[in-house]
Amino acid sequence: MNGIIKAIKERRSIRKFKTQIPRKEDLMQIIEAGLYAANGRGKQAAIVLAITNKQMREKLVKANCKIGGWPDGFDPFYGAPVILVVLGDKTCHTQLYDGSLMMGNMMLAAHSLGLGSIWIQRSKEEFEQDEWKILLAGLGVQCEWEGIGHCAVGYTEGDVPAPAPRKDNRVFWIE
């Protein structure tokens, strides 16, 4: 079986991670895979905010919990030590699609490197808040950005879940 198709069939969302941070070289490969995602009109209008700093990760956890309505102490990122936040340029009408393809590429790349990942929502709401806009400005990130998703990445703790059976009647041919 083709390696890419095999990775697509085997990749699963991971909900328990080890605390060890993956090698920076692996994280850079994951991010590069995201940067090579297909994108509307070749505008490359999605970016990645790579968070490996524990204090910044905890700020993100608290913001995500507040939006999600979870109590203090809950980790919506399931313990993943790295959070790759994908943001789309609000002036580009394909930002949601471009960022989604970036997320998919990064999750497949993580799997191919023996790492687990999961897509976590609520980045849109986070990056509408001034605190996170100020963070981006401090990094020199220009324009208005919309959060597309968090790609939580790390080493899987425990077994990888088995795939759910695929539903029937989801393909309709017109020949």
CATH homologous superfamily assignment: NADH Oxidase
Q: Can you tell me the number of structural domains?
A: 1
Given as residue ranges, the uncertain stretches (5+ residues, pLDDT < 50) are none
**End-to-end C-alpha gap:** 26 Å
Instruction: Please list the strands of the largest sheet in the order they lie side by side.
Output: 1-2-4-3
Q: Radius of gyration, rounded?
A: 17 Å
CATH class: Alpha Beta
Topology pattern, helix = H, strand = E: HHEHEHEHHE
Globally, the shape reads globular
Explain how this protein is built.
The structure is a single chain. By secondary structure, the protein is an alpha+beta fold. It contains six helices and four strands; from the N terminus they run ααβαβαβααβ. The chain has a single domain (14-154), classed as NADH Oxidase (3-Layer(aba) Sandwich), CATH 3.40.109.10. It has a four-stranded antiparallel beta sheet. Helix 2 packs antiparallel against helix 4 (95-112). The longest helix has 18 residues, at 95-112. The mean pLDDT is 97.
Topology, pairings included?
Layout: H1 3-10, H2 24-35, E1 46-51, H3 54-68, E2 82-89, H4 95-112, E3 116-120, H5 123-126, H6 130-138, E4 145-154
Antiparallel strand pairs: 1-2, 2-4, 3-4
Helix pairs in contact: 2-4
What's a quick, concise take on this entry?
By secondary structure, this protein is α+β, with helices and mostly antiparallel strands.
Keywords:
single chain, 175 residues, alpha+beta, 6 helices, 4 strands, globular
